[in-house]
Amino acid sequence: MKIVEVLGPGCNNCRRLEAVAREAVAIAGVEAEIRHVTDYAEIVAHGVMSTPGLVIDGKVVSVGRIPSADDIAGWLVTA
Questions:
Q1: Average pLDDT per run of 10 along the chain, which is 79 residues long?
Q2: What span, in angstroms and rounded, lies between the C-alpha atoms of 50 and 66?
Q3: Residue 14 annotated to the active site
Q4: From the candidates 4, 6, 7, 14, which is the catalytic residue?
């Protein structure tokens, strides 16, 4: 099972990224747990200074933007 973390304080972009990530999980057909991380210390611990951030299995794959569901699905498959 994949662990997907959306990093951000809960703003509109962060919530939108979470929705796109859920769509990507369905597209990729993988089993994944999606977590929304709002704790600034944990966000910074990932090295993310611009939100929203996206982490798949501990690896930061996107920072400061909302990638497409297809891009995220590709990352899920190759992670």
A1: 95 96 97 96 96 97 97 94
A2: 12
A3: yes
A4: 14
